[in-house]
């Protein structure tokens, strides 16, 4: 496939909790591609599963050279849409079916990465009913949905009993929305992230929320979180994070781009560094971290979008599998 211009279908929206983020990512991608002379078709998956059933017809009508997958969460990040596009024979950006199934599930990700030496927090999956009887771990600990992104549904249960002791059944929290949650020890310290593009770790960014923790609101509300790129951390910590992010990207079989999120207990040095999760569909909004790191390295937003597409097309041309 030539360097373009390409006909690109940008897939966005969907009914996950991150719908608005996906629409914002998609709008930015469409604008950048149009400005660079590509033929672009924007496709909103729809706000409900019923609307999404039209996706095959929309893809056939668009007949693109490549689909830019700008969906976040289920069903665009969990292998569902990837499997559909595999069956229909469309080339698409980002990771394939198997990688997507593993990476969206935080417990499966641990099972895949920890045996290879990737440091990740311990913990276990708990039925929410258990939380109303006793703590699954010593406080403080974190509970989060197993397969949501963007810190959706994350709660930190503190020693002071901020949700009750035990957690109150009627207290607002993810236990009211999910049947089971992943419980992990709380890691004090700093929030950091590393993007990978192609086969290169880009940079380390530190995220400093102005209040609370780096939750969904802090991620996507302008002014609530300070981004420090490159992060002011010791060189050995930055090098370790970039090496871990690239290793995790390769072990999971990620394609095009991914983003690895870390917590670092700066009182413990390298022993305090933990990978939390790998995002196979990182955001592409004005506040998103992959474009920010690419910009730090001298790559414009439009160049980043084209690089992601070029990676997908090159993999297809080389006969590479979409894992």
Question: What features would you describe in this structure?
Answer:
The chain is an alpha+beta fold and 323 residues long. The protein has three domains: 87 residues, Rossmann fold (3-Layer(aba) Sandwich), CATH 3.40.50; 127 residues, 2-Layer Sandwich (D-amino Acid Aminotransferase, Chain A, domain 1); 62 residues, Dna Ligase, domain 1. 33% of the residues lie in helices and 22% in strands. It has a five-stranded antiparallel β-sheet with strand order 10-9-8-11-12. It has a four-stranded antiparallel β-sheet with strand order 4-7-5-6. A three-stranded parallel β-sheet has the order 2-1-3, with helices on both faces. A hairpin with a 2-residue loop joins strand 8 and strand 9. Helix 1 crosses helix 11. The two termini are 21 Å apart. The mean pLDDT is 91.
How much beta, percentage-wise? 15-25%
- The main sheet orders its strands as 10-9-8-11-12
* Global shape: globular
The assigned CATH architecture of the largest domain is: 2-Layer Sandwich
Based on DSSP secondary structure assignment, what is the total number of beta strands?
12
The mean pLDDT is 91
Oligomer: single chain
Parts with pLDDT < 50 across at least 5 consecutive residues:
none
CATH topology value of the largest domain:
D-amino Acid Aminotransferase, Chain A, domain 1
SSE order, one letter for each helix or strand: EHEHHEHHHEHEEEEEHEHEEHH
Structural class: alpha+beta
Distance between the termini: 21 Å
Secondary structure tally, helices: 11
Sheet with the most strands, sense and barrel status: 5 strands, antiparallel
- CATH class category of the largest domain: Alpha Beta
